[in-house]
Design brief:
By secondary structure, the chain is an all-alpha fold. It contains 57 helices and no strands. This is Integrator complex subunit 3-like.
Length: 1044
């Protein structure tokens, strides 16, 4: 009974009491038993014959033996090569059945496999690829699908890296499978986005090299991917290798392939479902299909929460959401029955995914994924089902969630002219084609409730009128929208009949349209800018700023209303279609201020806006003391509403210099704070108002820093920031306040950050010098020009970054995971500041050549320039020193250099180090970091090898070194003597030299004695042996005194 309660032992899948042994494993185990009973005790040749005879009996026997050998391969790594060889000999179908079985296991049960089994599947796949077995590409495709997007867990990274190595090492095989080559490219081009963190630097580099080589060498095979290839290339467009590729795509397309005529050719090809599905695991795909075909509208929340918990809960998972949206848009095309049922529609699921996007970049990528087919829609090639979710999401959100409608409509209108300047006509035509077929097919009864909505903000109305004028025909009013929406199900039923034939006819369009569009040469800055740069780039070009509306969950409308305004932590703006008169806070600030705020919100002239702001500040001064506390917070919410557009624009741009940028209503409050006396009551009120504004929108903090820096040339005004920090953040330290505001500045306005940061280091040195967080922000935004400026100012003594800290090694250790250029900047600044080397070399024992090449290279250059000392040598000798070549290259190179330039000093230091360890004297403070005798000997051994190769071992002939080696040999174990046999042989040479010296001295003494005996009488000759003995003693005594 007890045995039955135990969890069954499994070697293939993970199991427990609740999940018993899998049926597939039981079958494979049984087949393995048949194989073992057939070949048990037989030599190899007889075993082969026995297996062949067995498989020839019937198809079932062939299957059983094949599956048995597969089980051995997957569970016994040691026997796997022999089992694979046997399998290759006895197969009757070219291993087709085996490949199909493994594909089934990978597709359906990969997550349940033991880690060792996964490793064996990769091994088997590698063998199949090496032997070019037919159908292996299906197995590789199944494994690629198991690489989860937005997941940086170790198992997922292992699988991504293993598959990449397999494909890279078998490039000829890959190039013979054109369709799978395109799939692999699509997969890894997408995965590059997930591996931006420093720990995955090597993997990311391999992925970039792999994708670039395929695109440049096999571009014709990549063309079938279609327009989503452009979308993925856009997401990695900042990487230098892809920047160069983009230039060729835009300006020299035929250098990539003679058949490639230009970007429009790619954008005309609708991406096949195979590619869109390959970035979702089979488990994800099953859950999405279940959600879109079985779950009723209104009952989806628990299923969405379930899906979110499984796949979207980590911070990195935001990159998966565009993959999901592209899959829902391009692959999930519901049948007529589903369209007419109460099943949750696709637009509602996409709306949920959009609302879960927190960062502006993630939101922009998700919106692009939704509209991408619409932007390039061609009525003769594209499927209307690819644009149906977007129009329905906008249309069905008009009443309940107008901010969703506004932000999506704003996005698609701006994409018509801003996506790529040279393609604006092409994109504009695609968007309009989509609207035309929506009207013709009656996807919505009328576009008027969407395009003629009176609640749209003024700027958006102008934009819609300009871009979509032909569709802005007065028709159904907003009040009739609910009736329109209620008819949606029946209209989609009618539409479904027309969509059915279109749905499967054009999975992929590879034929060239024959149109060779001439591409305009756009500004480099305007090309496919990353979402993070949108605000800065648009500010530079003085184009209208696209607001980044915050999505709020559809199911929580009541919460949204109760939340009042914007988030205090993120400073996101309100919905653009909301008028200031709709703010509840406006009713709590008094009639006079209310009137001034309404005028301010409706004013568009910059000069008049500044005057309106000044009038509001005057109204704040006139408030009674008893009113101030109650009014400031609602006033801050209203002011933020009026100023939010100003805060979206960069502090200054190429077209607007610093002085001109200060002519904004945002800075009127700052100007008053700076000009009023320190203890003035009005100044205290303004500081409190600024604190309230900062709680509503955290961009006000760095804007105040920018004003203090820009308004005066002597930087003295920056000290006023302390008053603001004390007022606004209470018990927070000034350092914490600076870090908080600089972080926001770095995220939203990198140019302003670069402008402010030198003054921060000068005026707040005691709070920021030597701080790793601020240093990281500095080098993250560092440009070569600014690096040069910093180095010059540090050299002149006008700037200090690291300070005179005794131990900087902790700070340097925190930089080891930063990007290469960031570390390069840090080391350049260290050299400029002449940081004491002893304060940073403590990190040497922690450094690994394969992980910390930047730090090691720079430390080697720095340490070459100084004379060795105990504090410098100790951490060098404490570094790990492998026995295999090339040992520790850093330590060997540095010791070799020192042995040439400072030979005697280095020899003395090494001798002292060995003597100290052998004597076991008093422990130093850092005794735990002291190198052991074996570590010292390992480094000396490698140094000795290098010296022998260079035929210069003079360093090891010094008395200090030989004495140290002699002590280590005498005190060492037999293992040590054996390990460092060559090194200790130098001591034997020393003993030989001693004996040779003694013999030569004895011979000299004998000759001297013989000469004196010729001149002496016979009596002296009788006592001749005695002086000889003394001479021997004297000779021995002298020799011992001079002994090495």
């Amino acid at each position: 009974m007890e045995a039955q309660k135990k969890t069954p032992e499994t070697r293939l899948f993970r199991s427990n009491v609740l999940n018993p042994k899998d049926e597939i494993e039981e079958k494979l185990e049984k087949c393995a038993g048949i194989v073992n009973s057939t070949i048990s005790g037989l030599p190899d040749r007889e075993a082969h014959d026995a297996l062949n005879q067995t498989v020839c009996k019937s198809v079932q026997q062939h299957e059983d033996v094949s599956l048995g050998l597969l089980y051995i391969i997957l569970t016994d790594p040691a026997s796997a090569p022999k089992a694979y060889r046997d399998l290759s000999f006895i197969t009757r179908d070219g291993l087709g059945m085996i490949i199909n079985k493994v594909v089934g296991i990978v597709t359906d049960k990969f997550a349940k496999l033991q880690e060792a089994t996964k490793t064996q599947i990769l091994w088997l796949t590698t063998e199949l690829v090496k032997n070019s077995v037919l159908g292996t590409e299906n197995l590789c495709a199944a494994l690629l699908r198991q690489i989860v997007g937005g997941d940086i867990s170790p198992p997922n990274i292992w699988l991504a890296e293993s598959m990449l190595n397999l494909l890279s090492n078998n490039r000829p095989w890959l190039e013979k499978n054109g369709l799978f080559l395109a799939t692999a490219l699509y997969c890894y081009l997408r995965l590059i986005q997930d591996h931006e963190a420093a720990p995955f630097k090597n993997l990311r580099t391999m992925e970039i090299e792999f994708c670039i080589s395929l695109l440049r060498e096999r571009f014709a095979d990549c063309l079938p991917i279609g327009r989503d290839l452009v979308r993925l290339l856009q997401s990695v467009g900042r990487i230098p290798e892809f920047q160069a590729l983009w230039k060729d795509i835009l300006y020299k397309p035929q250098t990539l392939s003679p058949q490639f005529t230009g970007l429009t050719q790619l954008l005309r090809i609708r991406t096949s479902r195979k590619f869109l599905a390959c970035r979702l695991t089979p488990d994800m795909e099953n859950k999405i299909i279940f959600l879109t075909s079985k779950v009723k509208f209104g009952q989806q929340k628990r299923y969405q929460d379930w899906f979110h918990k499984l796949y979207l809960s980590s911070p990195e998972s935001h990159t998966l959401k565009p993959d999901l949206i592209r899959y829902i848009v391009g692959v999930v095309h519901p049948s007529n029955e589903v369209l007419g049922s109460d099943v949750i529609p696709r637009w509602a699921i996409i709306g949920w995914l959009l609302t879960s996007c927190q960062a502006s970049a993630a939101s922009a990528n998700a919106k692009l994924a939704l509209f991408f087919d619409w932007m390039f829609f061609q009525t003769d090639k594209d499927n209307i089902m690819n644009i149906e979710p977007a129009i329905l999401l906008m249309h069905c959100s008009i009443r309940s969630h107008p901010f969703i409608t506004s932000t999506l409509l704003d996005f698609i209108c701006r994409m018509m002219s801003n996506y790529c300047p040279s393609l604006d006509g092409f994109v504009r035509q695609g968007v309009r084609n989509g609207f035309r077929i929506i009207q013709r097919k009656k996807v919505v009864i009328s576009l008027s409730p969407l395009l003629d909505n009176p609640k749209l903000e003024r700027g958006l109305k102008v934009l819609v009128k300009r871009e979509l004028e032909e569709f802005c025909v007065p028709g159904v009013k907003l009040e009739e929208a609910s009736t329109d929406i209620s008819l949606q199900s029946s209209s989609m039923m009618r539409l479904g009949g027309e969509l059915g034939s279109m749905d499967t006819s054009k999975d992929i369009e590879t034929e060239d349209s024959g149109v060779d569009d001439e591409l305009e040469m756009p500004d480099e800055e305007a090309l496919f800018s990353d979402p993070e740069e949108d605000e800065e780039m648009e500010g530079i070009k003085n184009e209208p700023i696209e607001k980044d509306y915050e999505f709020k969950p559809i199911v929580k409308e009541e919460d949204t209303r109760q939340g009042g305004g914007t988030s205090a932590s993120t400073g996101e703006e309100r919905e653009s279609n909301e008028d200031i008169t709709e703010l509840e806070e406006l009713e709590n600030i008094g009639e006079e201020l209310k009137s001034l705020l309404i005028q301010f919100s409706r004013e568009s002239d910059p000069t008049m806006r500044c005057k309106r702001m000044e009038n509001i500040l005057t109204g704040v001064i006139d408030l009674e003391d008893s009113e101030v506390d109650d009014i400031l917070k609602p006033l801050a919410v209203c002011l933020n509403f009026c100023l939010v557009d100003d805060l979206l624009i960069s502090c200054f741009t190429k077209e607007r210099n610093v002085e001109e940028s200060l002519e904004s209503p945002v800075y009127e409050l700052f100007r008053n704070i700076c000009t009023l006396p320190t203890h003035d009551v009005s100044r205290e009120r303004f500081l409190s108002l600024l604190s309230a504004l900062h709680e509503v929108n955290n961009k006000f903090g760095y804007r105040f820093l920018f004003y203090l820096k820009a308004s005066e040339s002597d930087e003295e005004r920056l000290t006023m920031y302390e008053d603001f920090a004390t007022t606004s953040r209470g018990e927070k330290s000034l350092q914490a306040c600076l870090i908080e505001d600089l972080k926001v500045c770095q995220d939203y306005d990198p140019r302003a950050f670069r402008y402010i940061i030198p003054s921060i280091y000068r005026k707040f040195a005691e709070h920021v010098v030597g701080d790793s967080e601020i240093l990281h922000m500095l080098v993250t935004n560092m440009e070569p020009i600014q690096l040069n400026t910093f180095i010059c100012e540090i050299t002149l003594g006008e700037l200090i970054i690291f300070g005179e800290q005794k131990q900087l090694d902790t700070l340097i250790e925190s930089t080891l995971d930063w990007e290469s250029f960031e570390q390069y900047c840090v080391w350049q600044l260290i050299q400029a500041e002449d940081v004491l080397l002893e304060s940073i070399v403590g990190i040497l024992p922690l450094l690994k050549p394969e992980q910390h090449a930047e730090a090691l290279a720079n430390l080697l250059i720095l340490m070459k320039s100084v004379q060795p000392s105990h504090d410098l040598l100790t951490p060098v000798l404490g570094m790990e020193c492998p026995d295999k070549r090339p040992g520790n290259q850093f330590a060997t190179a540095l010791l070799r250099y020192w042995s040439q330039e400072y030979s005697s000093e280095l020899a003395q230091l090494i001798s002292q180090q060995v003597s100290k360890q052998l004597s076991g004297g008093k422990k130093r403070k850092n005794a735990k970091n002291q190198p052991s005798v074996d570590q010292v000997l390992s480094h000396l051994d490698w140094l000795h090898n290098i010296c022998q190769e260079q035929e210069d071992i003079s360093f090891f002939k010094q008395d200090n070194i030989r004495s140290a080696l002699d002590q280590a040999r005498i005190a060492g174990s037999e293992a040590r003597k054996s390990r460092f046999k060559m090194l200790f042989s130098l001591c034997d040479e020393k003993e030989t030299r001693k004996r040779t010296t003694r013999m030569s001295r004895q011979q000299a003494a004998s000759k001297q004695s013989a000469a004196s005996s010729d001149e002496s009488d016979e009596e002296e000759e009788s006592i001749k042996p005695k002086p000889t003995k003394r001479r021997k003693k004297t000779s021995t005594s002298v020799d011992s005194d001079s002994d090495d």
